[in-house]
Design a protein that fits this description.
Structural class: alpha/beta
Largest sheet: 7 strands, mixed
CATH class of one domain: Alpha Beta
CATH superfamily of one domain: FAD/NAD(P)-binding domain
CATH topology of one domain: FAD/NAD(P)-binding domain
Strand content: 15-25%
Radius of gyration: 22 Å
Distance between the termini: 24 Å
Shape: globular
Strand order of the largest sheet: 8-7-16-17-18-15-19
CATH architecture of one domain: 3-Layer(bba) Sandwich
Amino acid sequence: MNKKVLVIGAGIGGLTAASLLAKHGVEVILLEASSEFGGSAGKFKRHKYLFPVGATLGMGLEPNGIHERVFRYLEKPLPLEPLETVMEMVHPGMTFVFMKNRDRHVDQMVRHFPEHEKNLRSFYREIYETASIVRTLMGPLPALPPATLKEWMYLVRSFRLQHSKLLPVFNQTLGQRLKRHHLDQLSPFRHMLDGLLIDSMQTDSKSVSFLLAAVALDIYHEGAYYVPGGLYEMAERMAESILENGGVLKKKRTVTKLEQAGSIWIASDHRGNRYEATDIVLNVPIHQLPGILEPDMIQKLKKPLREGLTTPTWTTLTLYLAVDFRKLISPLPPFRQISSNSTEELSEGSHFFMSASQPGDLRRAPEGFQTVTVSTHSKAHLWDTKEKYDAMREMVTERMLQAIDETVPHFRESIVHLETGAPKGWERYTGRPKGYVGGFPQTLDNALFNSISHHSGLPNLYLSGDHIFPGGGTIGVAVSGIHAARSISGSLIL
């Protein structure tokens, strides 16, 4: 029987799977609930300003990076502006600058903490060496956790002697390695690392898997990019490729039910349309599955996936602003993190990521203006009543604006547009129940062999997205899309 694949959800994971399969010659239909492609890396427009929904920093676009491999395979190059200075990290009492060059980056840390020079250099040496070894597995890209004999065999064949160096730290956290280097009590340094990790790993240095943290802290040095227009350009190019290779794209199609008739999957959408397929790729938040699958199907899902259905993740409050940068001392830098206190608190506006369009990026804003997104993590239970919801939106918005004002003089005076993306907004526009974003924290309990596989446990039903290994961010969801495409095609695409 010829394959006919239905991909549900046009986030980066679903688009990656669909575009690779279509290029490979498989018949593909992709359904998207909203009016835009890209999911959390999509876009929306207000008046003359274009805003990225969520993701803004281009990663994995360096030579042989995950996204670069995808777009090279699709023959769809992206315009890129490489960043030598990746971002500023503003903390109470000191500001760090994340530099692409590893030596310059470490030298800067030593200048901040000269009495810890030996320990800092040994720590970063271990980080970079570990990441270098882990990256050698990104070439073959074995699936974790392996779920079939073929995947186990491919994993074993991917191992080399150098990978044995990872075994002593395989089950360790970054916090344990910091203690080994006598840096666990260096609070300002650790808090800076926590700020980097909460955005990429959804947790802090105390709990994050060391192997994944090493890659997360090193990958900025491999290449970070500003993508003119925004990361939605990745979504647009993959959508173009799908059409060019005979695929079908349908927006504003919300799938309400999935059922099986023998070896065929049947999907129904909210308009009453039905779609038949041999294989399904679900690129939706896994918390949606109980509303799409029958209870008996839920019971057949793999145990880690079933457990994840009722496990909450982070929510977020995002500010979408347009500013007249002529009222500022200088235009805003493209990427900046701000922590307004030195405690371990990294949510509810005490720590946030701020990105701005480059001056002259006229797809984002007219001459003299920049569009800005500001996003913080937040705990879902703090938004669960209308009274709490309204109070949280007001409080967190003010907290972030105040912190920016203290860093950027005249910032409020420069604002010409401001709106908020609170959890209900994320739920409405991206289909994320309760506004959950980012996937699960990459702790030892959730990562690597303990993560959720792209195999659902139901025949020919595959998963991609930020809840599937290796987790959140555009790179993580693209990897899960690659694994789904490989499983369906039976070929090592890429």
